[in-house]
Design goal:
The complex is a heterodimer of chains A (403) and B (227). By secondary structure, chain A is α+β, with helices and mostly antiparallel strands. Chain A is built from 15 helices and 14 strands. Chain B has one domain: P-loop containing nucleotide triphosphate hydrolases (Rossmann fold). Chain B has seven helices and eleven strands. The longest helix of chain B is centred in the C-terminal third of the chain and has 17 residues. The chains are: A alpha+beta (403), B alpha/beta (227). The interface between A and B is medium-sized, with 23 and 29 residues.
């Protein structure tokens, strides 16, 4: 008890120094937690964008289709498979897609483009492109051969609503086909690369152009539980061995690698912060010990066991940590709550070109709060070990003579 | 009965270019209840002798027996425990814990000994009254004069009920009035509590009041005079 009392009083001897340590712990924790939340928020928005806007949870393809987007590589009897999948209890929705790589031309420009044939009512259940419209409608039109293009394409091709565009492609027999479409909707996502390359038409029209009667190139599946994607994909792969079934993390190029890389990046950031924190505490506690050499020598001279001297110095750090951690924790929580709802606008940083949202909403799982807090606690205590050991090495007979 | 017995005690410092014999073949016996001054000029070996007797330093050769226990046979941790249970220290610069009050400073050593709260309270109040600073019990060292701080140091030294008190130049930082008062106090405690006091000093006022004076010069005993 007396050790706790002395340790507590000791930390207020030099208020400025103790407040520096407490602030370092507080800011270290905040930086670690907020940094993690920023990265997690960035990844979460990226994942959500990839899943909701681009690919859904799981996709079925004919083997080899994703490598070269060859229209001949389609899923036979895809409608039957889609219907069967729709009856699965764990599946929320299913959408068939026909995909063609071809050339889109307007009066001003032509360029390569991936045309995706969809059933709008099904597609609304597996992706959210219909919520990304900036002009026009999502196939709610009487116009013949409607097409929904991105704002990026509209700007590049200098076209607008009602403009006519021509798409050139090969059908399943290898014959070149042309078809004209009327722009009825313009969408915009946060992924410039995706926007530049993707346009949507009604699946029946693209099937007709392809001369594809009973089949499609892709079946997109939306699960009830996002976290089951990998497990369910594995199960489907076993059931549909003639097809290629992939979860979202293997479908978006480099997504799995990016998630892993970001995890490493996250640990690296937190590691650097904690390392800086460790040296800050170590330095300050070492100063606190060296400043009290004579007093510590006296304590040992009058009979205070070395173990108790060690514990007293450790208590001092623990007290400062116990003050700094809740403040840092609260500060982190407030920062994450605020920025998590208001967002951090990084429009100028060209994150959109990398496929990230321009507004980041920091987000942190409860477990991560606990993990970072424990790491800060361990680091703080570890930082005090060397100064405490240094105190133990003092010889009372020499220490009590120090001025 | 001897409380302290040294035999051919020698301490040589050989860290510099020339080896220095700080204590040179000192053999003394101090009995219970003595009020002894170890005197001599600066560098004569007074503090080194006290440090060895107090188990703070080890001799190069010779032996020290305190209460029939050979200090040379103990390791560092055993020495710390031994000091806690047997020796009271009074330092030249008081060396109180600055964040604790006079009462807490006095009580500290008893807490290390594991003395019960009731016994601590009684003993602390009694000691602080005896050293004449009962009313300053809740003051911190920074709020007290040098003389008052040294009185607290004496109370702390006696709190653990030691076999003897070692005081290294206890009056060196005090004005003459405070020094006289402190000497009166130590003599009174020596008589009333039968505490053995051994102090190093070159303060003539202290030497005049001591009942035994051991004079050192160049580490050797020049004279050992009882009055």
């Amino acid at each position: 008890m007396i050790l706790l009392k002395v340790a507590w009083k000791n930390i207020w001897r030099n208020k400025v120094r103790s407040l520096v340590v407490i602030s370092a712990i507080c800011l270290g924790l905040w930086a670690g937690v907020f940094g993690s939340a920023f990265v997690q928020g960035m990844m979460k928005s990226k994942i959500e964008a990839v899943i909701h806007t681009e690919i859904s949870h799981i996709q079925f393809h004919a083997p080899g289709f994703r490598d070269e987007f060859n229209g001949k590589l389609f899923i036979p009897n895809s409608t039957n498979i889609a219907e069967k999948l729709a009856n699965d209890n764990e599946i929320e929705a299913v959408s068939e897609r026909v995909i063609s790589m071809g050339m889109l031309a307007s009066a001003n420009k032509n360029s390569a483009l991936r045309l995706v044939g969809i059933n709008p009512s099904d597609e609304k259940k597996v992706t959210n492109i219909h919520t990304k419209l900036v002009e026009g409608s999502y196939f709610e039109t009487n116009k013949k051969r409607p097409i929904v293009i991105s704002k990026k394409t509209a700007d590049d091709f200098k076209i607008k609503l009602n403009s006519k565009v021509v798409f050139t492609m090969q059908d399943v027999h290898g014959v070149i086909k042309h078809a004209s479409f009327r722009v009825v909707g313009i969408y915009q996502t946060s992924n410039n690369m995706y926007d530049k390359m993707t346009a949507f038409v009604d699946i029946s029209q693209l099937k007709k152009l392809y001369e594809l009667e009973n089949g499609s190139h892709e079946i997109a599946v939306w699960l009830k539980d996002h976290d089951q994607a990998e497990i369910k994909a594995k199960g489907f792969q076993e059931n549909y061995q003639t097809l290629e079934v992939k979860p979202w993390m293997d479908l978006s190029s480099g997504m799995r690698m990016m998630i892993e890389a970001f995890d490493v990046y996250l640990y690296f950031i937190v590691g650097i912060i904690l390392f800086a924190l460790l040296f800050s505490i170590l330095n300050t506690m070492l100063m606190a010990v060296l400043e009290r050499v004579r007093e510590i020598g006296m304590l040992m001279a009058i009979g205070m066991a070395k173990k108790k001297v060690f514990i007293m110095i450790m208590y001092e750090t623990v007290f400062m940590t116990m003050i700094g951690v809740p403040i840092g924790f609260l500060l982190s929580w407030i920062s994450i709550q605020y920025t998590g709802s208001h967002g951090i606008d990084l429009s100028g940083a060209a994150y959109e070109n990398q496929g990230f949202e321009s507004i980041i909403y920091p987000y942190l799982e409860a477990q991560s709060y606990v993990e970072v807090t424990i790491m800060v606690l361990i680091m703080s205590i570890a930082a005090a070990i060397y100064p405490a050991l240094k105190a133990l090495k003092l010889r009372p007979v020499e220490a009590i003579r120090k001025v | 009965m001897s409380v302290i017995e040294t035999s051919h005690l020698t301490k040589i410092y050989d860290e510099g270019p020339v080896a220095v014999r700080a204590v040179d073949d000192v053999s003394i016996q101090i009995t219970e209840g003595e009020f002894t001054a170890v005197v001599g000029p600066s560098g004569s070996g007074k503090t080194t002798l006290l440090n060895i007797i107090g188990g703070l330093d080890r001799p190069s050769s010779g032996s020290v027996k305190v209460a029939d226990v050979e200090l040379g046979d103990m390791n560092e941790d055993q020495l710390i425990k031994f000091r806690l249970e047997n020796i009271g220290f009074v330092f030249q610069s008081y060396n109180l814990i600055p964040v604790l009050t006079a009462k807490e400073n006095t009580e500290f050593i008893m807490l290390l000994q594991g003395v019960s709260e009731k016994e601590r309270d009684t003993r602390v109040l009694q000691l602080l009254d005896e050293v004449g600073i009962g009313e300053q019990a809740n003051k911190r060292p920074s709020e007290m004069s040098g003389g008052q701080q040294q009185r607290v140091a004496v109370a702390r030294a006696l709190a653990s009920r030691p076999k003897f008190v070692l005081a290294d130049e206890p009056t060196a930082n005090l004005d003459s009035k405070s020094a006289e008062n402190l000497l009166d106090l130590m003599l009174q405690l020596n008589k009333e509590e039968n505490v053995t006091f051994i102090f190093s000093t070159h303060d003539q006022r202290v030497i005049d009041r001591a009942r035994r004076v051991i004079t050192l010069e160049d580490g050797k005993i020049l004279s050992d005079e009882s009055r």
